[in-house]
Specification:
The chain has 94 residues and is mostly helical. The chain contains 4 helices and 3 strands.
Length: 94
């Protein structure tokens, strides 16, 4: 079953603005990461799709900046995003 929507007296730009607002509203929960968000090793490994040992190796090699609070290790969201950006840019430099 298809739905037909008729629009009257709506300009092209108004339609695009309305669609952009709807898309932004739907994507907001996915992009609502704060810059100062601290991620645990497990959260980073889940997000990257690798094991926790791999994340520890990234930290040891200096590929991923991390810091300790007590005995726990955390990675800032900003540092993770920057590390991922660097990896992508190196891929295309070759």
């Amino acid at each position: 079953m298809t739905k037909i929507i008729q629009l009257q007296n709506v300009s092209k730009t108004e339609l695009f603005e309305h669609i952009e607002k709807i898309i932004d509203k739907k994507l907001e929960p996915l992009t609502s990461h704060t810059k100062n968000e601290k991620l645990s090793i497990q959260e980073v490994s889940d997000e990257l799709g690798v094991t926790e040992l791999t994340v520890h190796n990234y930290i040891k090699r200096g590929n991923l900046p991390a810091f300790k609070i007590g005995r726990r290790i955390f990675i800032k969201r900003v540092d993770l995003d920057e590390a991922l950006r660097e990896v992508k840019s190196l891929k295309y430099k070759r």
